[in-house]
């Protein structure tokens, strides 16, 4: 990594880590979801086994699910508000006046987002492994790769939203709203198969929710399998590339009419 | 010698009209005018933040058009720019030094801007004066040859203001050209090697402060509060403004005007003073031919 890029990544990470909202979205979120599920469903819930998948506990499903959720949260919620805030302060304009290329700024953000997601997943995995023990079978490399794919999709969306000519206050409303809709539609942290019997209409929604499809993909990747949702994930990857091209045209560095 | 900044016939609808001026190496040029005269728009056009309708800008020998990358030797500090609240000043300077490929700010500038105590502080905790000094420091982290500063001292306390002024002088002495927009004519008179007087987006006059003052001829100035009725004293030019009325003329002519004002002013002590850059601006804005003041026409 070149010195300039490393300097930008370091600063981005430092800024993100110093933000309570970022720590909440990346670090606290998975633990909060786990705690809420236990409070509502029961403290034995994480160790229950899936009927359809013997030997796979709810917590084994929740870990990859939370990896996807954190990636979406960092990519969409954190990145959108962060970019809008930097533009609002004229920091983007200032960065653009330097000899550094615009691409290195975007890459720095992507690397910082990736590091944040991986750090969060590692922490959540470490704690859950300590409490509930590791899964019988899991593939950390596949899990990491799948989580990075989801991070890329979410990052692309966040960069598009953050790059729109929108005041920072608008971004602070739009980005969390977008994430909450995605998270709610993905099954609210509950493995989506669980909704089949309780609320079939809700399960139907998860069939069309991009985050639910991505989470399914990560879950199966963590078991070393290819999810049935892979065509949807491939479609989302292509969409992310299209979004990147669109972002190149629409990204607003100045924030001026 | 090629100027470091050459602005030719720069126009932007409702803001600038055929503005032309140059900045040479080792010179401070102050673009001065009241709020709304087009100073900030001008700097934004030069910094690539706004697109001019016509005209050309040459920076450090390179013609810069809309969307073109700016030459690395240019530093810009705009008023409405800041850094994230959570970033420390030292981190900002270090980041921008890296981006410009320099070793950071010269120690002399750190001392002049009194940055040492600010380095560990986050931007959120800085006062307006400290923030402005830090932002100027960021602009200078790239070791620039030409510096554009938009109203760097407006609203600052005298201490911060003086530090910024010293830094500007240091830049001229050490680096190259400095173009500063100001709305304080007295400050421009003190600071500038050359002044560009801007009014309603047009250049009213350009030159050294002493040359612009000399345009008024050998007149003196008497300032009268606006509530006092002045009338039409002999051989004196009267320019009424909202806060004061200015009388321009020879010393004897102004002394006779004081005699006429005495019944209204009681024991008030009047002072006749030589003209300043502010007088030159006010006069040039009101009188097409300033030499006419000498005859009181």
From TrEMBL, chain A:
Transmembrane segments: 21-46, 66-84, 105-132, 138-161, 173-191, 229-247
UniProt KW keywords: Membrane, Transmembrane, Transmembrane helix
UniProt membrane topology term: Multi-pass membrane protein
Domain ABC-2 type transporter transmembrane span(s) in chain numbering: 5-212
Pfam families listed in its UniProt record: ABC2_membrane (PF01061)
Domain of life: Bacteria
Location, primary (coarse class): membrane
Protein's UniProt name: ABC transporter permease
Organism for this UniProt entry: Nonomuraea turkmeniaca
UniProtKB/TrEMBL annotation, chain B:
Membrane topology per record: Peripheral membrane protein
UniProt keyword ATP-binding present: yes
Domain ABC transporter span(s) in chain numbering: 5-225
PROSITE patterns linked to this entry: ABC_TRANSPORTER_2
Family, similarity comment: Belongs to the ABC transporter superfamily.
Cellular component GO terms held in the UniProt record: plasma membrane
Listed GO MF terms: ATP binding; ATP hydrolysis activity
Native source species: Nonomuraea turkmeniaca
Keywords: Antibiotic resistance, ATP-binding, Nucleotide-binding, Transport
Compartment annotation: Cell membrane
Name of the protein this chain belongs to: ABC transporter ATP-binding protein
Alphabetical GO biological process terms: response to antibiotic
Keyword Transport: yes
